[in-house]
Amino acid sequence: MDTATNKSRAAPGRKTEPAWQRVYTHVRARIVAGEIAPGSFLEEEAVSAEVGVSRTPVREAFQRLHAERFIDRLPRRGAMVRSATAEELVQLYETRRVIEAFVVRRIAQDGIAVPVALDTLLARLSAPRKAADFAFQAEGDFTFHRTLVALIGNAVMLGVFDGLHLRQLRVAMRAVALNPDRLVLIHAQHAALLAALRRHDGAAAVAILDEHLRPAPEILSRMQS
């Protein structure tokens, strides 16, 4: 068998990622990172050239992104990147309060050890970084809270929480961008939450979490405008 034939065959057991999936992953990552601003229009032709695929998988990827509320499909105008709304932020935080209040109570009641890795993560998040690195902060915040949810060993609850991941990143990035000064308060609340959990004070942990997961009125006001 010649070399050309060998190269034309995929390695055994290796799966090739569908073209639409490559487009979806690429565009979604750029939206979450803030590289494509809310309100921007996405052109099928431009995206197909950027990723190196035909326009058919681009349309399929856009359908998925629309279903997940990352973009809006506008008749005769194409696709537009959605802006996170105040209503979306409120609903997301309401959902998280239900899940995470249960989680911190269980951690405190059962005396579950809180990993030192979370202290390391908080140190990295609070260290000086370039001002516009909101993606780093949003991803780190999600990792912090996901680690706590995972501690109680409820796979179903963790799955529900993971389902909020991409929406949480998109919404959190906009909220932080509107008021970067709140990062100081957010980091302080994270540290206070760990301290409450380590002294097994469930009531204090829930109170801190309740404050932490309530959008600031000034951010809601600016998201509504």
Write up what this structure looks like.
- The protein has 225 residues and is mainly α.
- It has two domains: 11-81, Orthogonal Bundle (Arc Repressor Mutant, subunit A), CATH 1.10.10; 86-224, Four Helix Bundle (Hemerythrin (Met), subunit A) (Up-down Bundle), CATH 1.20.120.530.
- It is built from twelve helices and three strands; from the N terminus they run H-H-E-H-H-E-E-H-H-H-H-H-H-H-H.
- It has helices at residues 3-8, 19-32, 44-51, 55-67, 86-110, 117-126, 134-151, 155-162, 165-178, 182-198, 202-212, 217-224; strands at 41-42, 71-74, 78-81.
- The N and C termini lie far apart (66 Å).
- Mean pLDDT is 86; it is low at 1-14.
Task: Summarize this structure as a short list of keywords or feature phrases.
2 domains; 12 helices; elongated; disordered N terminus
Structure at a glance:
The chain is mainly α and 225 residues long. It contains twelve helices and three strands; from the N terminus they run H-H-E-H-H-E-E-H-H-H-H-H-H-H-H. Strands 1-3-2 form a three-stranded antiparallel β-sheet.
